[in-house]
């Protein structure tokens, strides 16, 4: 899982790919992964990916809607 997320993070450097990821609902999937506490390396990667995606208003609004602050506070 970690390798796949790392690959997605790297290819999301391309703006067009990042838009496609948003359209496919990657933010929702990443926030769901925040509930997994068994792998700290995976959590760090998910948080980094969410941080990168939060630059765009649409992603930020979706994160707010999905209560990301509460999930991050529980970490």
Explain what the structure shows.
The chain is mostly helical and about 80 residues long. The chain is about 75% helix and about 0% strand. It has helices at about 1-10, 15-25, 25-35, 40-55, 55-65, 70-75. The longest helix has 14 residues, at about 40-55. It is globular, with a radius of gyration of 12 Å. The two termini are about 20 Å apart.
Can you tag this structure with a few keywords?
6 helices; mainly alpha
Task: Indicate the topology.
Elements: H1 2-11, H2 15-24, H3 26-33, H4 40-53, H5 57-65, H6 68-73
Structure at a glance:
The protein is 76% helix and 0% strand. By secondary structure, the protein is mainly alpha-helical.
For the record, give the distance between the C-alpha atoms at the N and C termini, rounded to a whole number: 19 Å
Global Rg: 12 Å
Largest sheet: none
What is the overall shape?
globular
* SSE run: HHHHHH
Quickly give the structural class: mainly alpha
Strand percentage: under 5%
Q: What's the pLDDT, averaged over the residues?
A: 93
- Binned, the helix content reads over 70%
Model regions low in confidence, pLDDT < 50 over at least 5 residues: none
Tally of individual helices: 6
**Would you count the extended β strands for me?**
0
């Amino acid at each position: 899982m970690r390798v796949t997320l790392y690959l997605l993070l790297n290819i999301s450097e391309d703006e067009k790919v990042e838009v496609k990821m948003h359209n496919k609902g990657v933010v929702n999937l990443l926030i769901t992964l925040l509930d997994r506490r068994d792998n700290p390396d995976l959590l760090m990667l998910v948080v980094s990916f969410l941080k990168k995606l939060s630059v765009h208003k649409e992603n930020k609004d979706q994160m707010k809607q999905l209560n990301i602050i509460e999930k991050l506070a529980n970490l």
